[in-house]
Amino acid sequence: MQTLIFGAGNLLLSDEGFGVHFIKYLEEHYLFQDDVELYDGGTLGIMVTHLLEDADQVYLVDVVEAKGEPGDIYRYEKEEFLLGKLPIKMSPHQIGIQEVLTLSDLRGRIPEKVTLFGVIPQTYEAGVELSPTLAEKLPGLAEMVVDELKIVGHLIEKRC
User: Fold this and answer.
1) DSSP 67
2) DSSP run (H or E) holding 104
3) pLDDT for residue 87
4) Model's pTM, two decimal places?
5) Is the pLDDT of residue 90 over 60?
6) CB half-sphere exposure, 92, CA atoms < 13 A
7) What is the CA radius of gyration of the chain?
8) Domain at 50, CATH number
9) Which structural domain range is residue 114 located in?
10) Distance, CA of 85 to CA of 107 (rounded, Å)
């Protein structure tokens, strides 16, 4: 099973870059086999359709505008994307990811499993660092995703 972990976001706007920081955190703390691809998607959106369509399983990590407190993490599955049931607005590059999934579905090339982990940001101020609130969420979310991948048979090692 080919798995893609896709981190979206703009590194120049603090918490907006959460997905990209998440990919960097995984690269620094874990070793993955070739069946897991970590991808810093930045704000590319529709330009990465081929990556999503080549995977069997996709984890998207991004910030979302939803009810709750900064740092709250929500989980959404593919059906919620396709049925338009997301009670949230994804960050400014949402046009890319949600539209890409819909286009992939229309073409019959959508991955079997798509999961979004969306975190509520604390700030969008200019800056390349996450707010402390979101920075402390990286380890827990990474462990959750890694544990799920191990359950379905991916071999992942923690770096020393």
Assistant:
1) S
2) helix 94-106
3) 52
4) 0.86
5) no
6) 10
7) 15
8) 3.40.50.1450
9) 3-158
10) 21
